[in-house]
Amino acid sequence: MQAPDIDDRYVRMAVLFMLSLALLGATCATAIHWAAPVHRPMDLIVPPAISALYIGLIVALTRRPQWVVGIARIALVAGVLALAAPSWLYTLQATSTPGTQLIDILPPVSSLFVVLLVMLMIFVPGRLAFLLAALAWVMIALPVLAHLLLHREEMWSARGMDLLMAYGPASIMAVVLLPVQRGLAGKIRRLATERQRMEALLHRDPLTGVQSRLLGERRLREALDADAPAGVIMLDLDRFKAINDTYGHPVGDRVLQAVASGCEGLLRGEECISRWGGEEFLALVPEVDASGLLQVAERLRAAIAGSPVAPVQAVTASFGATMIQRGDTLDTVLQRADLALYRAKEQGGNRVEAAAS
Ligand SMILES: Nc1nc2c(ncn2[C@@H]2O[C@H](COP(=O)(O)OP(=O)(O)OP(=O)(O)O)[C@@H](O)[C@H]2O)c(=O)[nH]1
Protein backbone atom coordinates (compact mmCIF):
# COMPACT_ATOMS: atom_id res chain seq x y z
CA MET A 1 0.00 0.00 0.00
CA GLN A 2 1.21 3.51 -0.83
CA ALA A 3 1.90 5.66 2.23
CA PRO A 4 -0.07 8.91 2.30
CA ASP A 5 1.89 11.92 1.18
CA ILE A 6 1.41 14.12 4.25
CA ASP A 7 4.10 15.95 6.16
CA ASP A 8 6.02 13.07 7.81
CA ARG A 9 6.85 14.77 11.05
CA TYR A 10 3.30 15.88 11.65
CA VAL A 11 2.00 12.37 10.93
CA ARG A 12 4.52 10.82 13.33
CA MET A 13 3.52 13.23 16.09
CA ALA A 14 -0.18 12.56 15.47
CA VAL A 15 0.31 8.77 15.56
CA LEU A 16 2.45 9.01 18.69
CA PHE A 17 -0.22 11.15 20.32
CA MET A 18 -2.95 8.71 19.28
CA LEU A 19 -0.99 5.71 20.59
CA SER A 20 -0.26 7.48 23.87
CA LEU A 21 -3.91 8.37 24.37
CA ALA A 22 -4.99 4.83 23.52
CA LEU A 23 -2.39 3.49 25.95
CA LEU A 24 -3.67 5.82 28.65
CA GLY A 25 -7.26 4.68 28.01
CA ALA A 26 -6.30 1.01 27.99
CA THR A 27 -4.23 1.40 31.19
CA CYS A 28 -7.12 3.17 32.95
CA ALA A 29 -9.51 0.45 31.75
CA THR A 30 -7.09 -2.20 33.07
CA ALA A 31 -6.94 -0.53 36.50
CA ILE A 32 -10.71 0.03 36.68
CA HIS A 33 -11.47 -3.58 35.75
CA TRP A 34 -8.96 -4.96 38.24
CA ALA A 35 -10.45 -2.79 40.97
CA ALA A 36 -14.05 -3.69 40.05
CA PRO A 37 -15.91 -6.13 42.35
CA VAL A 38 -16.91 -8.39 39.45
CA HIS A 39 -14.16 -9.69 37.16
CA ARG A 40 -15.26 -10.62 33.65
CA PRO A 41 -12.59 -12.64 31.82
CA MET A 42 -12.63 -10.32 28.79
CA ASP A 43 -12.17 -7.21 30.94
CA LEU A 44 -9.09 -8.78 32.46
CA ILE A 45 -7.60 -9.76 29.10
CA VAL A 46 -8.42 -7.12 26.45
CA PRO A 47 -7.29 -3.85 28.17
CA PRO A 48 -3.91 -5.21 29.40
CA ALA A 49 -3.26 -6.91 26.07
CA ILE A 50 -4.00 -3.65 24.22
CA SER A 51 -1.83 -1.72 26.69
CA ALA A 52 1.08 -4.07 26.08
CA LEU A 53 0.62 -3.86 22.31
CA TYR A 54 0.48 -0.05 22.31
CA ILE A 55 3.61 0.15 24.50
CA GLY A 56 5.36 -2.02 21.90
CA LEU A 57 4.08 0.19 19.07
CA ILE A 58 5.22 3.39 20.81
CA VAL A 59 8.70 1.92 21.32
CA ALA A 60 8.77 0.78 17.68
CA LEU A 61 7.71 4.24 16.48
CA THR A 62 10.38 6.05 18.48
CA ARG A 63 13.08 3.66 17.22
CA ARG A 64 11.87 3.33 13.64
CA PRO A 65 9.99 6.55 12.73
CA GLN A 66 9.93 5.48 9.08
CA TRP A 67 7.55 2.64 10.00
CA VAL A 68 4.87 5.14 11.00
CA VAL A 69 2.26 4.09 8.44
CA GLY A 70 2.64 0.36 9.22
CA ILE A 71 2.50 1.04 12.97
CA ALA A 72 -0.64 3.17 12.56
CA ARG A 73 -2.29 0.36 10.60
CA ILE A 74 -1.43 -2.27 13.24
CA ALA A 75 -2.85 0.08 15.89
CA LEU A 76 -6.01 0.47 13.81
CA VAL A 77 -6.54 -3.28 13.41
CA ALA A 78 -5.96 -3.74 17.15
CA GLY A 79 -8.36 -0.88 17.81
CA VAL A 80 -11.07 -2.47 15.66
CA LEU A 81 -10.67 -5.79 17.49
CA ALA A 82 -10.54 -4.10 20.90
CA LEU A 83 -13.76 -2.20 20.21
CA ALA A 84 -15.52 -5.10 18.48
CA ALA A 85 -15.01 -7.50 21.41
CA PRO A 86 -16.99 -5.49 24.01
CA SER A 87 -19.62 -4.52 21.43
CA TRP A 88 -20.53 -8.12 20.70
CA LEU A 89 -19.94 -9.51 24.16
CA TYR A 90 -21.92 -6.92 26.09
CA THR A 91 -24.70 -6.89 23.51
CA LEU A 92 -25.01 -10.70 23.79
CA GLN A 93 -24.89 -10.42 27.56
CA ALA A 94 -27.60 -7.70 27.63
CA THR A 95 -29.78 -9.66 25.22
CA SER A 96 -29.42 -12.96 27.03
CA THR A 97 -29.58 -11.72 30.65
CA PRO A 98 -33.02 -10.48 31.68
CA GLY A 99 -32.93 -7.17 33.58
CA THR A 100 -29.50 -6.19 32.14
CA GLN A 101 -29.41 -3.09 29.96
CA LEU A 102 -26.72 -2.62 27.34
CA ILE A 103 -26.58 1.14 28.06
CA ASP A 104 -25.52 0.30 31.63
CA ILE A 105 -22.81 -2.23 30.91
CA LEU A 106 -21.28 -1.12 27.58
CA PRO A 107 -17.92 0.67 28.25
CA PRO A 108 -17.78 4.33 27.08
CA VAL A 109 -16.03 3.61 23.78
CA SER A 110 -18.41 5.05 21.17
CA SER A 111 -16.32 8.22 20.58
CA LEU A 112 -13.25 6.00 20.04
CA PHE A 113 -15.11 4.38 17.15
CA VAL A 114 -15.40 7.77 15.40
CA VAL A 115 -11.69 8.44 16.04
CA LEU A 116 -10.94 4.99 14.60
CA LEU A 117 -12.87 5.81 11.42
CA VAL A 118 -11.01 9.11 11.05
CA MET A 119 -7.65 7.33 11.41
CA LEU A 120 -8.75 4.67 8.91
CA MET A 121 -9.59 7.35 6.36
CA ILE A 122 -6.21 9.01 6.90
CA PHE A 123 -3.93 5.99 6.91
CA VAL A 124 -5.60 3.55 4.53
CA PRO A 125 -5.47 4.59 0.88
CA GLY A 126 -8.26 4.50 -1.73
CA ARG A 127 -11.32 2.34 -1.64
CA LEU A 128 -9.84 -0.03 0.91
CA ALA A 129 -10.50 2.67 3.52
CA PHE A 130 -14.26 2.54 2.78
CA LEU A 131 -14.24 -1.25 2.83
CA LEU A 132 -12.48 -1.34 6.19
CA ALA A 133 -14.74 1.40 7.54
CA ALA A 134 -17.79 -0.68 6.56
CA LEU A 135 -16.22 -3.77 8.15
CA ALA A 136 -15.42 -1.85 11.33
CA TRP A 137 -18.98 -0.55 11.40
CA VAL A 138 -20.38 -4.08 11.09
CA MET A 139 -18.01 -5.39 13.77
CA ILE A 140 -18.43 -2.53 16.26
CA ALA A 141 -21.54 -0.44 15.62
CA LEU A 142 -24.02 -2.92 14.16
CA PRO A 143 -24.61 -5.12 17.24
CA VAL A 144 -25.12 -2.07 19.46
CA LEU A 145 -27.45 -0.34 16.98
CA ALA A 146 -29.45 -3.56 16.41
CA HIS A 147 -29.85 -4.01 20.16
CA LEU A 148 -30.98 -0.39 20.62
CA LEU A 149 -33.51 -0.64 17.80
CA LEU A 150 -34.94 -3.78 19.40
CA HIS A 151 -35.01 -2.15 22.85
CA ARG A 152 -36.63 1.24 22.33
CA GLU A 153 -36.67 2.19 26.01
CA GLU A 154 -32.86 1.92 26.00
CA MET A 155 -32.59 3.76 22.71
CA TRP A 156 -34.57 6.79 23.95
CA SER A 157 -32.38 7.13 27.06
CA ALA A 158 -29.61 9.75 27.07
CA ARG A 159 -26.87 7.10 26.68
CA GLY A 160 -28.90 5.30 24.03
CA MET A 161 -29.28 8.48 21.94
CA ASP A 162 -25.61 9.19 22.40
CA LEU A 163 -24.68 5.74 21.09
CA LEU A 164 -27.14 6.16 18.21
CA MET A 165 -25.53 9.46 17.20
CA ALA A 166 -21.96 8.17 17.47
CA TYR A 167 -22.56 4.91 15.59
CA GLY A 168 -24.94 6.54 13.07
CA PRO A 169 -24.66 10.15 11.77
CA ALA A 170 -21.27 10.97 13.36
CA SER A 171 -19.64 7.90 11.78
CA ILE A 172 -21.23 8.62 8.41
CA MET A 173 -19.99 12.23 8.54
CA ALA A 174 -16.42 11.05 9.22
CA VAL A 175 -16.50 8.58 6.32
CA VAL A 176 -18.06 11.11 3.92
CA LEU A 177 -16.17 14.29 4.84
CA LEU A 178 -12.65 12.90 5.15
CA PRO A 179 -12.38 11.74 1.53
CA VAL A 180 -13.48 15.26 0.48
CA GLN A 181 -10.63 16.65 2.59
CA ARG A 182 -8.30 14.03 1.08
CA GLY A 183 -9.34 15.12 -2.42
CA LEU A 184 -8.67 18.76 -1.57
CA ALA A 185 -5.28 17.88 -0.10
CA GLY A 186 -4.43 16.01 -3.33
CA LYS A 187 -5.51 19.01 -5.38
CA ILE A 188 -3.34 21.35 -3.29
CA ARG A 189 -0.37 18.99 -3.76
CA ARG A 190 -0.90 18.90 -7.52
CA LEU A 191 -1.13 22.71 -7.63
CA ALA A 192 2.07 23.03 -5.60
CA THR A 193 3.88 20.66 -8.01
CA GLU A 194 2.51 22.59 -10.98
CA ARG A 195 3.66 25.86 -9.39
CA GLN A 196 7.15 24.46 -8.89
CA ARG A 197 7.20 23.38 -12.54
CA MET A 198 6.05 26.82 -13.71
CA GLU A 199 8.65 28.50 -11.53
CA ALA A 200 11.36 26.25 -12.95
CA LEU A 201 10.22 27.25 -16.45
CA LEU A 202 10.26 30.93 -15.54
CA HIS A 203 13.75 30.61 -14.14
CA ARG A 204 15.31 29.01 -17.23
CA ASP A 205 15.79 30.56 -20.63
CA PRO A 206 14.05 28.10 -22.97
CA LEU A 207 16.56 28.43 -25.83
CA THR A 208 19.88 28.30 -24.01
CA GLY A 209 18.95 26.59 -20.74
CA VAL A 210 20.84 29.14 -18.62
CA GLN A 211 19.11 31.29 -16.02
CA SER A 212 16.33 33.55 -17.24
CA ARG A 213 16.58 37.32 -16.83
CA LEU A 214 13.90 37.03 -14.13
CA LEU A 215 16.10 34.83 -11.95
CA GLY A 216 19.20 36.81 -12.93
CA GLU A 217 17.60 40.03 -11.66
CA ARG A 218 16.60 38.30 -8.44
CA ARG A 219 20.18 37.09 -7.88
CA LEU A 220 21.54 40.53 -8.71
CA ARG A 221 19.16 42.16 -6.17
CA GLU A 222 20.33 39.64 -3.56
CA ALA A 223 23.95 40.55 -4.37
CA LEU A 224 23.08 44.26 -4.05
CA ASP A 225 21.53 43.61 -0.63
CA ALA A 226 24.40 41.43 0.56
CA ASP A 227 27.31 43.08 2.31
CA ALA A 228 29.95 41.27 0.23
CA PRO A 229 32.06 42.21 -2.78
CA ALA A 230 30.62 41.14 -6.12
CA GLY A 231 30.82 42.15 -9.75
CA VAL A 232 28.76 41.89 -12.93
CA ILE A 233 29.81 41.28 -16.50
CA MET A 234 27.53 42.24 -19.35
CA LEU A 235 28.39 40.49 -22.62
CA ASP A 236 26.96 40.89 -26.08
CA LEU A 237 27.78 38.88 -29.19
CA ASP A 238 29.46 40.90 -31.93
CA ARG A 239 27.72 41.33 -35.28
CA PHE A 240 25.22 38.68 -34.44
CA LYS A 241 22.69 40.06 -36.93
CA ALA A 242 25.19 39.24 -39.69
CA ILE A 243 25.43 35.62 -38.42
CA ASN A 244 21.65 35.31 -38.59
CA ASP A 245 21.50 36.96 -41.99
CA THR A 246 24.32 34.84 -43.43
CA TYR A 247 23.62 31.41 -41.95
CA GLY A 248 19.98 31.65 -40.89
CA HIS A 249 18.20 31.81 -37.53
CA PRO A 250 18.65 28.11 -36.58
CA VAL A 251 22.43 28.55 -36.79
CA GLY A 252 22.13 31.79 -34.81
CA ASP A 253 20.22 29.82 -32.16
CA ARG A 254 22.96 27.20 -32.04
CA VAL A 255 25.57 29.93 -31.56
CA LEU A 256 23.57 31.34 -28.62
CA GLN A 257 23.30 27.88 -27.09
CA ALA A 258 27.00 27.15 -27.52
CA VAL A 259 28.04 30.51 -26.05
CA ALA A 260 25.65 30.15 -23.09
CA SER A 261 26.72 26.62 -22.19
CA GLY A 262 30.40 27.42 -22.80
CA CYS A 263 30.23 30.40 -20.42
CA GLU A 264 28.22 28.48 -17.84
CA GLY A 265 30.82 25.71 -17.92
CA LEU A 266 33.58 28.22 -17.17
CA LEU A 267 31.88 29.80 -14.18
CA ARG A 268 32.53 28.40 -10.71
CA GLY A 269 30.68 28.00 -7.44
CA GLU A 270 28.19 30.81 -6.89
CA GLU A 271 29.01 32.53 -10.18
CA CYS A 272 26.13 32.43 -12.65
CA ILE A 273 25.10 33.63 -16.07
CA SER A 274 21.67 34.73 -17.29
CA ARG A 275 20.33 35.43 -20.74
CA TRP A 276 19.49 39.10 -20.54
CA GLY A 277 17.92 39.54 -23.99
CA GLY A 278 18.49 38.52 -27.64
CA GLU A 279 22.26 38.00 -27.84
CA GLU A 280 23.09 39.62 -24.51
CA PHE A 281 24.08 37.80 -21.31
CA LEU A 282 24.84 38.93 -17.77
CA ALA A 283 27.26 37.11 -15.48
CA LEU A 284 27.17 37.69 -11.74
CA VAL A 285 30.45 37.03 -9.94
CA PRO A 286 30.31 37.08 -6.14
CA GLU A 287 33.31 37.14 -3.80
CA VAL A 288 35.61 38.87 -6.28
CA ASP A 289 37.68 42.05 -6.56
CA ALA A 290 38.03 44.33 -9.58
CA SER A 291 41.05 42.54 -11.09
CA GLY A 292 39.52 39.11 -10.44
CA LEU A 293 36.35 40.24 -12.21
CA LEU A 294 38.32 41.31 -15.29
CA GLN A 295 40.10 37.95 -15.28
CA VAL A 296 36.76 36.13 -15.31
CA ALA A 297 35.54 38.35 -18.17
CA GLU A 298 38.77 37.77 -20.10
CA ARG A 299 38.43 34.01 -19.59
CA LEU A 300 34.91 34.12 -21.04
CA ARG A 301 35.97 36.32 -23.93
CA ALA A 302 38.85 34.05 -24.88
CA ALA A 303 36.67 30.94 -24.62
CA ILE A 304 34.00 32.37 -26.94
CA ALA A 305 36.53 33.64 -29.46
CA GLY A 306 38.37 30.32 -29.35
CA SER A 307 35.34 28.10 -30.00
CA PRO A 308 33.75 28.85 -33.36
CA VAL A 309 30.39 27.22 -33.99
CA ALA A 310 30.38 25.62 -37.44
CA PRO A 311 29.59 26.80 -40.04
CA VAL A 312 30.17 30.24 -38.52
CA GLN A 313 33.83 31.09 -38.91
CA ALA A 314 34.22 33.42 -35.95
CA VAL A 315 32.06 34.14 -32.94
CA THR A 316 33.18 36.90 -30.60
CA ALA A 317 31.63 38.97 -27.85
CA SER A 318 32.21 42.30 -26.16
CA PHE A 319 32.28 42.67 -22.40
CA GLY A 320 31.54 45.42 -19.88
CA ALA A 321 32.55 44.65 -16.30
CA THR A 322 31.84 46.52 -13.11
CA MET A 323 32.08 45.92 -9.39
CA ILE A 324 28.92 46.46 -7.34
CA GLN A 325 29.41 49.63 -5.33
CA ARG A 326 27.91 50.80 -2.06
CA GLY A 327 24.54 52.48 -2.73
CA ASP A 328 24.15 50.81 -6.14
CA THR A 329 20.70 49.91 -7.43
CA LEU A 330 19.86 47.45 -10.15
CA ASP A 331 19.67 50.31 -12.64
CA THR A 332 22.94 52.02 -11.70
CA VAL A 333 25.02 48.84 -11.80
CA LEU A 334 23.49 47.73 -15.11
CA GLN A 335 23.99 51.19 -16.58
CA ARG A 336 27.72 51.15 -15.71
CA ALA A 337 28.15 47.65 -17.16
CA ASP A 338 26.25 48.72 -20.29
CA LEU A 339 28.41 51.81 -20.81
CA ALA A 340 31.57 49.73 -20.49
CA LEU A 341 30.15 47.21 -22.96
CA TYR A 342 29.36 50.05 -25.36
CA ARG A 343 32.98 51.22 -25.18
CA ALA A 344 34.18 47.69 -25.92
CA LYS A 345 31.90 47.59 -28.99
CA GLU A 346 33.11 51.03 -30.12
CA GLN A 347 36.68 49.80 -30.02
CA GLY A 348 35.91 47.01 -32.44
CA GLY A 349 34.45 44.32 -30.16
CA ASN A 350 36.00 41.10 -28.88
CA ARG A 351 37.36 42.91 -25.86
CA VAL A 352 36.72 43.52 -22.17
CA GLU A 353 36.22 47.01 -20.78
CA ALA A 354 36.04 47.86 -17.11
CA ALA A 355 33.51 50.48 -16.03
CA ALA A 356 34.84 53.80 -14.80
CA SER A 357 34.22 53.87 -11.05
N1 LIG B 1 18.89 33.33 -33.92
C1 LIG B 1 18.45 34.18 -33.00
N2 LIG B 1 18.62 35.48 -33.18
C2 LIG B 1 18.20 36.33 -32.24
C3 LIG B 1 17.56 35.90 -31.08
N3 LIG B 1 17.26 36.99 -30.34
C4 LIG B 1 17.68 38.07 -31.02
N4 LIG B 1 18.28 37.69 -32.19
C5 LIG B 1 18.85 38.49 -33.22
O1 LIG B 1 20.03 39.16 -32.74
C6 LIG B 1 20.29 40.25 -33.59
C7 LIG B 1 20.80 41.40 -32.80
O2 LIG B 1 21.22 42.37 -33.70
P1 LIG B 1 21.88 43.74 -33.26
O3 LIG B 1 21.18 44.27 -32.05
O4 LIG B 1 21.94 44.60 -34.44
O5 LIG B 1 23.29 43.36 -32.74
P2 LIG B 1 24.58 42.86 -33.53
O6 LIG B 1 24.27 42.48 -34.94
O7 LIG B 1 25.21 41.78 -32.71
O8 LIG B 1 25.47 44.13 -33.54
P3 LIG B 1 26.53 44.54 -32.46
O9 LIG B 1 25.94 44.18 -31.12
O10 LIG B 1 26.66 46.01 -32.61
O11 LIG B 1 27.76 43.80 -32.72
C8 LIG B 1 18.97 40.57 -34.33
O12 LIG B 1 19.10 40.25 -35.69
C9 LIG B 1 17.96 39.64 -33.67
O13 LIG B 1 17.00 39.15 -34.60
C10 LIG B 1 17.36 34.50 -30.93
O14 LIG B 1 16.82 34.03 -29.94
N5 LIG B 1 17.82 33.68 -31.89
TrEMBL record:
GO MF annotation, one: diguanylate cyclase activity
Group of enzyme by EC: transferase
InterPro entries: Diguanylate_Cyclase (IPR050469), GGDEF_dom (IPR000160), Nucleotide_cyclase (IPR029787), Rev_trsase/Diguanyl_cyclase (IPR043128)
Keywords: Membrane, Transmembrane, Transmembrane helix
Catalyzed reaction equations: 2 GTP = 3',3'-c-di-GMP + 2 diphosphate
Transmembrane segments: 44-62, 74-93, 105-123, 130-151, 163-180
Highest taxon of the lineage: Bacteria
Keyword Metal-binding belongs to the record: no
Residue ranges annotated for the GGDEF domain, each copy included: 228-357
KW Transmembrane helix (keyword) present: yes
Cofactor: Mg(2+)
Entry-linked NCBIfam families: GGDEF (TIGR00254)
Name under which the protein is recorded: diguanylate cyclase
Species of provenance: Frateuria terrea
